[in-house]
Amino acid sequence: MLGAAGRRILGLGLGKRAPGAVTAAASRGYHERVVDHYENPRNVGSFDKSDPSVGTGLVGAPACGDVMKLQIKVDDDTGKIVDACFKTFGCGSAIASSSVATEWVKGKHMEDVLSIKNTEIAKHLSLPPVKLHCSMLAEDAIKAAVKDYKAKNSKATGKAETVQTDKVENT
Amino acid sequence: MNPYLVIMRTTKNYSLFLMLRSSVGELFYKKTAKLGLRFFATGLILGNSHFHSLSPSDFFLCNRAYSVLVRDFVLCGGSQHGLQESKALDRSFYSSSTCSGELPKCWNCGGTAPTSIPFLACESCGSVQPRNLSIDFFQIFGLFLLCRERSHDIKDDNLEGKYKDWQKKLHPDLVHSKSEKEKMFAAEQSALVIDAYQTLRKPLLRAIYLLKLGGKHVDEEKTITDPEMLAEMLEMREAVDEAHDSLTLKKIKAEVEEKFETYSRSFSQAFTSGDFDDAIASIERMRYYDRAIEEIRKKL
Question: What is the least distance, in Å, from the CA of A59 to any CA of chain B?
Answer without folding.
Answer: 5
